[in-house]
Every structure is written in structure tokens, then in C-alpha cells.
Amino acid sequence: MNIFYIYLPVAGVEFNVLLLFVIGFCVGVLGGFFGVGGGWMITPALNIFDFHMDFAIGTGFATIFGQSIGAVKKHQKMGNIDWKLGMISIITSVIGLEIGSDVIISLEKVGEVGVIVRWCYMFLLTALGAYMFYDYFVLQQRQIKLREEENKSGTKTGQNVSRTKFSERLHRFNLPPMISFPVSGIDGVSIWIIFFIFLITGFLSGFLGVGGGFIIVPVLVYVIGLPTTIAVGTSLITVLFSGAYGCFTYAMKGRVELLASFIMLIGASIGAQVGSTAVKYIKGYGIRLLFAITIIFAALSVGTEQLYKLTMQDYFQMMAAIVLMGTTLSMSLVIILRLVMESKKEIKK
After folding, report:
1. How many Å apart are CA 126 and CA 292, to the nearest integer?
2. CA distances from 145 to 131, 166, 179, 289, 325 (A)
3. Contact at 8 Å (CB) between 75 and 232?
4. I need a surface site. Which of 25, 185, 205, 300 has the fewest CB within 10 A?
5. Contact 126, 306 (CB under 8 A)
6. What's the pLDDT tens digit per position in 30-88?
């Protein structure tokens, strides 16, 4: 039905308005729930549907910035944001983002940008998803067993099983100045470690065209040791500012399709309120499991798109679109259903 198609002059493609709205709504739900900007969904989705990769990245940043505003407000009301850590992360993230975006523009000149970005997406998403599955099925069971032993003995072991071994080593690194984050329950960590972590996540954000949330949330949880809900809320601070800066720097390079971004933002503004509210009703490990499932399927979608680029078989492009949209729609539906179910239980109480 051509009535739903509009011409996007900057990107130079025709696109379905309803599809843009649905992408935006799903990004809003998942972004508000997982504490991510959604660029890891927007960028591959736009690229699959014929946006050139650099335009997909730039347009993704514009959408990330807009939808993060509402999500930040919602999480702030719920007390899920460590503003001190969030503001510190912005400084180095922006530096890394500018470096990453410059690398993308350089690669575009030699025609290698799409292939490299897709391979990086596949590697990072698969690695993060695999580790989060390991965390859910192994580390959580260890935590449950430890608590059962504590309940039987009536004593505390003093072990913090919610943190990884790497996180525990990180907190023993005492290069001054040291800084504490009371909201996150962190007594002291070297500020140089914080700077380095967010420099790397900022670079990946600019290179992959994402707000950085899908990288930052696991980093905050597994590397720095934040509770999941605080990590979700705090990551949105970095996502908000990196999205704003990414939108600006790509717009200056003429790579942002504002019309497409505006349509997606209409859906995202609605979805963000739904996703942010759902965090209140779903426990930390439940969030991690759903996040792991989502990014694994996102990696599969990008891998299928890469097969299409290699073989030019339309079948693979269709499968990539089905996997990506199917994952975002199904996960959004799961979150909405859980929100409705838990809300009803709360009302009955």
C-alpha cells in the first residue's frame, strides 16, 4: 500500500511510515526497560530496509536522543539513577564517541564501513548475550545456594556473589584519586578505571551508532558491580548525552534523516513510558535474562543480513528483517504482558 510510504530526501529512500512507528515503539519499550538507547536495534533495522549504514547510524542517534529524555525522567522518579556516576561517564564517553564517528567516516571513504560494523555487532552482541546467559544460569544458582546455606546456619559468609571476580579485583585497584558512589552501593573505586571504561564504551558507541546502553549496562553490572535496576537507570544518562552528541556530529556530516527520526520518536515516546514502568515489577535477574535473549537474536539478525550482502539472495534479507522485527515485537509484548500482570497483582493487594 503506497499510501503509507514516504520519500526520505536525506537518506534518498522510500520508507513505510507504519514500520518506522513500530520500530520506534519497540525501541522505546526495550530502551526504557533495559536502559539502552536502542541504536543496536534501530541501526540494523534501518540498514536492513535499505538505509546506507552511515545514514542508519546518524538517524539512530537522533532517535536515541529523543526517546532517552522520557526514559530518564521516568527512572529518576523511581530512584534508579546514580547521577554522580552518570555525569562522570559523560565526559569520557563523548571523547570516545567522537573518535568512533571519525573512524566510521574514514571507513566510509574506502567502502568498508558496512561489513566491519556488522561483524563488530555480531561479535559484541553474541559475546554479551552468551555471558549473560552464563550469569543467569550459573551465577544466580550460586547466589541462591549461598543464601540457603546462610539461612540454615544463621550466619553471613561475607561474600558478595552479585559481583563478578573481575569486579572484585577492580575494586581492589587503588590508584588515586578514589571515588565513592553511595547510590550504587560502591564504597571506593579508582576514578581512572571509570574514565577508561567509559572511553571504550564511548568509542564503541560512535563506531556502532548506538547510545552505548547495550554495552554500558553489562559493564555497570559485571565490571563496576552496580545493582541491575541502578545500572539500567544510570546508563540512560550516558545514552542521553551520547545520543545528543552523536546526533549533532552526524548531522554536521549530513548523515541524519530527521523526518524518519521524528516518526520513530512518536512511537518511542509512548514505548519508553511502558518500558520504564515495567522495571518496577521485574527483578534484576529477569531483566538480564530478557536482555540476553534480545541481543542474541539481534546478533542473529545482523549475521543473516551479512549473508545477504555476501550472496545477494533476497531470502536472507527477508529472514534478517523477520528475526529483528520478530524479536523486538515479541520482547516488547512480553514486557507489556508482565507489566499488566504485575500491575493487576499490585491492585488486588
Report:
1. 9
2. 20, 21, 33, 19, 38
3. yes
4. 185
5. no
6. 877 877 666 667 877 787 777 887 788 888 888 888 877 877 887 888 888 888 888 88
Rounded CA-CA distance 199/205 in Å is 10
SS3 8: strand
Answer for the pair 132, 220: CB distance below 8 angstroms, yes or no. Answer: no
Alpha helices in the chain (DSSP H): 17-34, 39-48, 53-77, 83-110, 113-134, 140-153, 165-171, 191-208, 213-218, 228-252, 258-278, 284-311, 314-348
Instruction: Mark residue 312 as left, alpha or beta (left: phi above 0; alpha: psi -120 to 50; beta: remaining).
Output: left
∠ at Cα 307 (306, 311), nearest 5°?
120
Across residues 231-245, what is the average pLDDT? 81
C-alpha cell at 191: 576514578
Question: What's the pTM value of the predicted model, to 2 decimals?
Answer: 0.69
Higher local confidence (pLDDT), 266 or 113: 266
**CA-closest candidate to residue 63, choices 301, 258, 303, 330:** 258
Phi, psi dihedral angles at 9 (to 5 degrees): -65, -35
